[in-house]
Amino acid sequence: PQGSEEAKAFVNAFLKRSMPRKNEEAIQDILTRKAVVLEHYPKKKTKLKRKKTKGFTAKQRREMRLFEIEPEQQRYAIFLPLHELWKQYIRDLCHGLKPDAQPHMVQAKLLKADLHGAIVTVTKSKCPSYVGITGIILQEFKHVFKIITKEDKLKVIPKLNNVFSLEIDGFISYIYGSKFQFRASERSAKKFKLKGTIDL
């Protein structure tokens, strides 16, 4: 058993450890009372800062040629399965493309749809050499379509001043490239307004 002095020293030391923010006089004042309420000071948790994964810049992507299609991959037959997938995607998006489907509703959905895999034809253009080019869209950028033709040639067609047509299950839709200069990701969230007359 501890003596009174040892017990007193133990209690003083214990209170100093338990109440580090209080000075000696405050602790002695507490000891004169019958009840002592010990305070708890939780340790401040240091928040770990998450490092944001920085993507590549546009310049780095160009230097690494991330979006380049290798010459040996530039074959029309390779991308025909992609076109079949795209057709199924559009049928699901438009609930089957039934004969009684309202054209403006289908058109509204096509405006926001992903066009990678669609077969398009340039029907009108201010540059006559573009007219008649048909192929599968491999890449869509803000200002251009990259398409592969049946002759296994990769063509870069600007959207500006060109009108494209795409056909699926008998439904033909026209894309006015000058009004379509958005990235695919931006297009899905954009609200298109109906306009009476549209020109090149």
Automatic annotation (TrEMBL):
Cellular component, GO annotation: nucleolus; ribonuclease MRP complex; ribonuclease P complex
Pfam families, A to Z: RNase_P-MRP_p29
GO molecular function: ribonuclease P RNA binding
SUPFAM superfamilies for the chain: Rof/RNase P subunit-like
Keyword field: Nucleus, Phosphoprotein, tRNA processing
Main location: nucleus
InterPro entries the record matches: RNase_P/MRP_Rpp29-subunit (IPR016848), RNase_P/MRP_Rpp29_sf (IPR036980), Rof/RNase_P-like (IPR023534), Rpp29/RNP1 (IPR002730)
Annotated compartments: Nucleus, Nucleolus
GO BP field: rRNA processing; tRNA 5'-leader removal
Family of this protein: Belongs to the eukaryotic/archaeal RNase P protein component 1 family.
Function comment: Component of ribonuclease P, a ribonucleoprotein complex that generates mature tRNA molecules by cleaving their 5'-ends.
Known partners and oligomeric status: Component of nuclear RNase P and RNase MRP ribonucleoproteins. RNase P consists of a catalytic RNA moiety and 10 different protein chains; POP1, POP4, POP5, POP7, RPP14, RPP21, RPP25, RPP30, RPP38 and RPP40. Within the RNase P complex, POP1, POP7 and RPP25 form the 'finger' subcomplex, POP5, RPP14, RPP40 and homodimeric RPP30 form the 'palm' subcomplex, and RPP21, POP4 and RPP38 form the 'wrist' subcomplex. All subunits of the RNase P complex interact with the catalytic RNA. Several subunits of RNase P are also part of the RNase MRP complex.
UniProt-recorded name of the protein: Ribonuclease P protein subunit p29
Natural source organism: Zapornia atra (Henderson crake)
